[in-house]
């Protein structure tokens, strides 16, 4: 077990207790100390103290330094958050180095109270109001807090009884740090309203942790029903998500962010609430900003959380104006799709061609298509006569009515000849290009996706 040791009262107490246990149980200890380089000579003295005590107790020690101030500037973090990240990264790295599966730290019951108050002030949900957990994951390892139910006064008494003399960190008195203000100002003030405020908050956190554990199971069930992870995106089935209780909707949004940004420590209430309200009431096409470059995209049938919308697995144009050879085959630039074109006599068409269930396959009257069709993207003012309609319609309006996502409308392949649209590929052919009783020859077009075969060649589907 790797033990995080600052040299202060809590960590010194923890190391001493674990040392005693190691005499009875098969427990191999390693002390780990990180000098944050924030306190000059005092920080160096702390490192020397930890190394000396560890040597006296026969415990191997790993001591390193980190320029936390520079780390904070690079990551645009507060000093407190930068120190926390650097410290836990160091502890996990040390544990992997020595082959430990567990890291122990000295957080106590008073620290727990401060943490709960900090999270409450930030506007955390149940996950934050649980406070710190006795055991939690840490970069594939296990982080434990054996003293989490032990009050600071008990720790100080233990040190006196055993004649232990910890280091004193003067920065713990600096009220410019948010946690120190809570410790020295806010918690004492709350105690004037209820002298047992610490015990009350810890009991509440324990109850909330139990509730959260139950909700976690419900979230997992709902996730399996309405969510799908697609690469670097999470996609919810919008209708089924909307049918869930509001509480589960909120937790699913939070869970999506957590899965996409596992290094993100705090997800603010305002982000979740803005996303929730938009997903429940804003129109298709709305986008909501979320933490760390994530966005909620509201679609017709989906709610997507991603840094950018993933393109659907359908033929899309990366270039405009591509000549179509009749007959022939052409690959679409920038993707695995190809368009196959055949010219056949009407009588030679396969049985059941008119029912054609494949949206990426079309049969057109060759005499109405012309000899030089081409693929292009949509253009302002485009009109065509969708199959089955009597008059023309603006392509823009058709795409809206067909619920084609706005972010791919400019890339949907349009088969055209001259100024005439013959086929909005994947959606509808033009009424005037359909195969009619008078048709003699038919232009059969099929988009196929190339897939790698088990050999060196390629297969198509």
Task: Explain what the structure shows.
By secondary structure, the chain is α+β, with helices and mostly antiparallel strands. It has 3 domains: about 1-200, HUPs (Rossmann fold), CATH 3.40.50.620; about 230-310, Uridine Diphospho-n-acetylenolpyruvylglucosamine Reductase, domain 3; about 320-460, Phenylalanyl-trna Synthetase, Chain B, domain 3 (Phenylalanyl-tRNA Synthetase, Chain B, domain 3). Helix content is about 40%, strand content about 20%. It is built from 14 helices and 23 strands. It has helices at about 10-20, 40-55, 70-75, 80-100, 110-120, 125-130, 150-160, 180-190, 195-225, 240, 245-260, 270-280, 365-370, 395-400, and strands spanning about 1-5, 30-35, 60-65, 100-105, 135-140, 140-145, 225-230, 235, 285-290, 295-300, 300-305, 320-325, 330, 335-345, 360-365, 375, 385, 395, 415, 420-425, 430, 440-450, 460. It has a 6-stranded mixed β-sheet, with helices on both faces. A 5-stranded antiparallel β-sheet has the order 7-8-11-10-9. Strands 12-16-19-20-21 form a 5-stranded antiparallel β-sheet, with no helix packed on it. Helix 11 packs across helix 12. The longest helix is centred in the middle third of the chain and has 30 residues, at about 195-225. The model has no long low-confidence stretch (mean pLDDT about 90).
């Amino acid at each position: 077990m790797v033990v995080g040791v600052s040299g202060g009262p809590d960590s010194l107490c923890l190391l001493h207790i674990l040392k005693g246990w190691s005499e009875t149980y098969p427990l191999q200890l390693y002390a780990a100390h990180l000098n944050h380089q924030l306190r000059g000579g005092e920080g160096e003295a702390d490192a020397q103290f930890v190394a000396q005590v560890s040597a006296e107790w026969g415990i191997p020690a790993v001591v390193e330094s980190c320029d936390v101030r520079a780390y904070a500037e690079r990551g645009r973090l507060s000093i407190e958050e930068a120190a926390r990240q650097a410290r836990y990264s160091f502890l996990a790295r040390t544990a992997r180095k020595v082959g430990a599966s567990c890291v122990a730290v000295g957080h106590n019951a008073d620290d727990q109270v401060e943490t709960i108050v900090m999270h409450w002030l930030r506007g955390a949900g149940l996950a934050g109001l649980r406070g710190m957990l006795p055991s939690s994951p840490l970069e594939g390892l296990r982080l434990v807090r054996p003293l989490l139910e032990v009050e600071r006064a008990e720790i100080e008494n233990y040190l006196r009884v055993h004649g232990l003399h910890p280091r004193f960190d003067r920065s713990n008195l600096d009220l410019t740090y948010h946690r120190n203000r809570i410790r020295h100002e806010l918690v004492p003030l709350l105690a004037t309203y209820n002298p047992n405020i610490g015990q009350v908050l810890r009991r509440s956190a324990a109850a909330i942790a139990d509730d959260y554990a139950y909700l976690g199971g419900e979230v997992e069930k709902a996730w399996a029903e309405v969510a799908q992870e697609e690469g670097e995106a999470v996609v919810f089935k919008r209708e089924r998500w909307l049918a869930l209780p509001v509480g589960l909707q909120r937790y699913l949004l939070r869970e999506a962010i957590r899965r996409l940004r596992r290094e993100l420590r705090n997800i603010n209430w305002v982000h979740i609430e803005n996303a929730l309200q938009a997903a429940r009431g804003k129109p298709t096409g709305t986008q909501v900003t979320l933490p760390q470059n994530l966005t909620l995209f509201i679609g017709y049938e989906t709610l997507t959380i991603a840094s950018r919308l993933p393109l659907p697995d359908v033929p899309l144009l990366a270039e405009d104006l591509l000549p179509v050879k009749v007959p022939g085959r052409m690959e679409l630039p920038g993707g695995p799709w190809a368009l196959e074109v055949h010219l056949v006599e009407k009588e030679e068409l396969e049985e059941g061609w008119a029912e054609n269930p494949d949206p990426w396959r079309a049969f057109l009257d060759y005499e109405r298509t012309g000899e030089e069709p081409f693929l292009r993207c949509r253009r302002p003012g485009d009109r065509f006569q969708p199959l089955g309609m009597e008059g023309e319609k603006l392509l823009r309006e058709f795409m809206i009515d067909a619920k084609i996502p706005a972010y791919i409308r400019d890339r949907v392949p349009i088969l055209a000849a001259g100024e005439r649209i013959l086929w909005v590929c994947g959606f509808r052919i033009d009424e005037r290009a359909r195969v009619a009783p008078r048709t003699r020859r038919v232009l059969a077009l099929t988009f196929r996706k190339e897939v790698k075969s088990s050999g060196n060649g390629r297969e198509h589907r």
